[in-house]
Amino acid sequence: MLPERMINLLILGLLLAVPLVALAMDEPFIITLATKAAVLAVAGVGLNLALGQGGLVSFGHAAYFGVGGYAMGILASHAQSYTPLMEAPFLIEGTKSMLVIWLVAIVASALVALLVGALSLRTSGVYFIMVTLAFGQMLYYFAISWPAYGGEDGLSIYVRNGFPGLNTLDPIQFFGLCFAVLLIVLFVVNLLNKSPFGLALNGAHQNEERARTVGINVYRLRLTAFVISGAITGLAGALFADLNRFVSPTMFSWQTSGEIMVFIILGGVARLCGPVAGAAVYILLEHVLGGLSEYWHIYLGAILLFVVLFAKGGLVGGLSRREVHHAG
Amino acid sequence: MRRSNWEIMMTMKFTALAAAALAMTFGNAALADAHSGKVKIGLITTLTGGGAALGVDTRDGFMLAIDQAANDAVEVVVEDDQRKPDVAVQVADKMIQSDKVDILTGIVWSNLALAVAPAANAQGKFYISTNAAPAQLAGKGCNKDYFAVSYQNDNMHEAAGAHATASGYTNAFILAPNYPAGQDSLTGFKRLYEGELAGELYTKLGQTDYAAEIAQIRASGADSIFFFLPGGMGISFLKQYADSGIELPVIGPSFSFDQGILQAVGDAALGIHNTSQWNKDIDNPTNKAFVETFQEAYDRLPTLYAAQAFDTANLILAAAGQADIADRDAFRAALKAADFNSVRGKFRFGNNQHPIQDIYVREVIKEGDVYTNKIISTILTDHQDVYAADCGLSD
Amino acid sequence: MSIILLIEQILNGLQFGVMLFLMAAGLTLIFGVMGLINLAHGSLYMIGAFAAAAGAAATGSFVLGLIAALTSAALFGALIELTVIRRLYARDHLDQVLATFALILIFSEATRWVFGSFPLFLDTPAFLSGTVTLPGGILYSKYRLAIILIGLAVAVGLFLLISKTRVGMRIRAGENDREMIGALGVDISVLYTMVFALGAALAGLSGALVGAIQSVEVGMGEPVLILAFVVIVIGGIGSIKGALAGAILVGLTDTLGRTLLPVLFASFMDPSAATTVGSALASMLIYILMAGVLLFKPTGLFGSA
Questions:
Q1: Distance from B25 to chain C by nearest Cα, in Å?
Q2: Same domain, B141 and B39
Q3: What integer pLDDT is reported at residue B85 of this predicted model?
Q4: How far is residue A320's CA from residue A323's CA, in Å, rounded to a whole number?
């Protein structure tokens, strides 16, 4: 049994070490896998803020993941074809700069989260789960049938977007960038969790009545958390799109929402690095089991079922002593 | 096969570190000699989840040709794309980076092909399509390393339009799902259809209930129906249409009348005319042998997807016999010459490296207990897609 | 659009709604009594359709296929209740969502493993094929009419079961107070297994009925499941009455939306753009409806807080 801080360092150290070893062995694909794990971990950390800390079981985070992805796809495709996004009333050009794209992804997904959250947070419990799921589906159908940006075909971006001073097409450099983003996100979320805001959020999760009686506006508190959560997942979406150099409506699908939740449960709910461990394990399972059998989803389902039923707390919970309170 | 794949991935070591990074960026001419003479093919297709039936047939048709050739110089790795574009991109990355394949092939769906093929070409790999052939890759976006052995996506729909015109229909009702392939299909139909339209409808992708659309067809006064509803959507539509009591002639592209699907539709499909560039009754020795050996090997009749994959594998095998993959220009020329025995009989590529071929009208019939197709006429001869003119490649 | 066509579309909407009700009723019943959110409900729908197709193919009888669907869905329902679901009652919704998500993965791939990747064949029975002429000269599919009648009969049956029988009394007691029902000496675990199997059987029935006019394939359950969620959110979770009202509302909105919206847009837009935009909006319409209902009634039309 180890303290959680040690486990977190261990997880992040492993995630950093794998691509470095792969680099030495000249296995660029393993670096790509590690990058995917880091990017999906960012999405999971985003959801974990709402789900773990706030107890808001959103089954529609694919919406923000997709909005972030499309922010990248739309801006980069306009830059790729040298056509402006809009000309009147003022000119907006596409861009291939990751920094601008990230900013747009964060703002756009935060706005969508604000709209969805404002409506969904009027409900609670199982209503909230289903309503967020339904809003995710709504965006999914919109993305498929909206012809301007490829519909179901999606958008291909032929060259990865640029970041000052880096060759983003080099797998290890792009991994480094994504890993740095993950660290920054973890740092910010950790600060948030320990701030009065985070404590109040967790307090409202444990006991909503008590939070109200001490004068906390629970609705506004949760909405803020939901928006930040959506924005982080949106950022992950933009990174994911850049990893694949491709966006499509599948980023909006309910299975994507489900997978992001699975990262959290595999790693450990409300644990800072739970989603990181979960995403890494998920990617590993996908590739090991996928190599064993065409029907690997059966094994994946069985493992997931086992973790939910018998291994509460996930990986991080299993390795550490400290109990944390669970979403409810 | 998949297992050894994993092992290769874990153990393979290449020397030039810098070259690998460079290869990722600009293609890996430097690494091509690593297995000179040996052709390595990456087959990416849908083996799990919805649509797996088409991927399984693609793989089986492809591997049948590979097994029959028993050529040690050709190696195939197979991976599942789960019908997800992001998974397809990652599998392609893995095949290019770890397995060091020379050729990618096998993707069933246009949206996945659009995610994979241009990127593969940019990294200096051949992409040879067994099925999906979207317009974007046939015209201005054509590429010297991209080949479609199957067709160009619009071909079947154009043929259906031509058949509607030839049958004397003047007031057709047309419908397709509201997504790019659906919009392209209705455009393709209208290209060679000369009559009026009684109605034009876009349905939701994945929709399973067509009662509302069928009611509109009934009320429209149409004299015929054209629909493009791939997979389960087509099965649902046909069963509900048969149940509706409307008796207008129906025309569709082959996708909804495939060997795999027909058994699930049953009597509802009997007598329907559909357009295809292949059928099991095309009379040539290659096709006969293909249908027979496929049945022996897998105990079912082959679908269009299996036939196209079989042709693709034979095209690659023929090219590998004529040129060394290390000499990319020679290998490309050998591919383009398409000197192989096709199940379609004659086969040649146009300037944009999509086939110029005959397209047939088939009718759904019942042979004993099995629903299948028979060819009733040739509707388009030596047909080439309209996008070829925009492609910068020459013959 | 003529009046006859409009009436026919309303019937279509009603039929779609009734079909959704069969799915939603099971979901909402299970939630109302056990407090469980069950994503695997769509898998039970799929099992029903596959069992019906296999049963009908083996015996040549649609009715026997239907019975096979009901029994196998109920059996699988009872089986997963006994092995997995009952461990989840005391858990939070997150665990329930994830465990039943895992069940979807297992069921879908196992079905594909057993039945293969190709869709199965299931046809309407001969005595229900073809059309019937309704008053006013409307031609309508006999089979769809039968679905409407079966669905309404199930709705009435459920009302009677819950309001008039001993089992129903226990179900109502369970909805109101889970502890009290235990105190009454009712063997609660048997009751829960029965309720879950009943919900599963309804899903299986729905899958079998729909399978005859749609494609019987792996993955057919999930789109319906999500629609059923929308239905019970609109109707109020746990309320059978709400499920019926919500289902019919969703069925009518979806059917009328996708036929009327493109026509509406065509009155002021270029026709081909109107079909695209109209269809795009139609595919989102029920979610907009749901959002609208929640704005005014956050617990749905018949839900209690």
A1: 37
A2: yes
A3: 85
A4: 8
**Which tens digits make up the pLDDT trace of C16-33?**
999 999 999 999 999 888
Residues 6+ apart with CB under 8 A from B363: B271, B272, B273, B274, B373, B374, B376
Of B48, B212, B264, the CB nearest to C215: B264
How many structural domains comprise chain A?
A: 1
Separation CA C80–CA A33 (nearest Å): 35
Count of all residues that appear for chain C in the document: 305
Query: 22-81 in C: which are within 8 Å (CB) of B?
Result: none
A-B contacts (CB, under 8 Å): 120
What are chain C's partners, defined as 3 or more CB pairs within 8 angstroms? A, B
Return the number of other C-beta atoms located less than 10 Å from residue C128's C-beta. 17
Chain B neighbours, 3+ Cβ pairs < 8 A: A, C
**Lowest pLDDT segment from A86-95, A141-150, B90-99:** A86-95
Q: Which two tokens stand for residue B293?
A: 């050996």
Q: Write out pLDDT tens, residues C128-174.
A: 888 888 887 888 889 999 999 999 999 999 989 988 888 788 777 76
Distance CA B217, CA B244 (A): 10
Q: How far apart are CA A67 and CA A149, in angstroms?
A: 13
Indicate if B200 and B90 belong to the same structural domain. Answer: no
Torsion of CA B283, B288, B291, B295, to 10 degrees: 140
Residue B57 falls within a domain, yes or no? yes
What's the CATH code of the domain at B97? Answer: 3.40.50.2300
- Between the alpha carbon of residue C161 and those of residues C27, C153, C154, C235, the distances in Å are 16, 12, 10, 20
Cβ of A123 within 8 Å of Cβ of C104? The answer is no
Using the beta-carbon criterion (under 8 Å), do C112 and A295 form an inter-chain contact? yes
Query: Would you say residue B394 lies in a domain?
Result: no
Residues B261 and B117 in one domain: no
The answer to whether A244 contacts B85, with C-beta atoms less than 8 Å apart, is: yes
pLDDT at C205: 96
Q: Cβ contact (<8 Å) for A138 and C288? A: yes
Question: Side chain identity at C49, as an amino acid letter?
Answer: A
- Residue B308 makes CB contacts below 8 A (sequence gap 6+) with B58, B61, B130, B131, B149, B150, B278
> Does B211 lie at the interface with C, CB-CB under 8 angstroms?
yes
Instruction: Determine, yes or no, domain membership for B392.
Output: no
Domain that includes residue B375, residue range:
155-276+359-387
Contacts of A122 in chain C (CB under 8 A): 294-295, 298
Contact yes or no for B183 and C130 at CB 8 A: no
ipTM passes above 0.90: no
Looking at the domain assignment, is residue C276 inside a domain?
A: no
Provide the domain count of chain C: 1
Q: Is the pLDDT of residue B7 over 70?
A: no
pLDDT tens readout for residues A98-114? 999 999 999 999 999 99
The whole-number pLDDT of residue B15 equals 28
Q: Which among A51, A254, A308 is the nearest to C95, CB-wise? A: A308
Option in A156, A170, A287 nearest B24 (CB): A170
CB-CB contact of C114 with C217 (8 Å): no
Domain limits for position C119? 9-218
Element (H, E) at A111: helix A98-120
Q: Pull the structure tokens for residue B76.
A: 């195939």
- How far are the Cα atoms of A84, B87, B144 from residue A246, in angstroms, in the given order? 20, 11, 22
Closest Cα partner for B175 from B99, B263, B240? Answer: B240
Rounded CA-CA distance A188/A186 in Å is 6
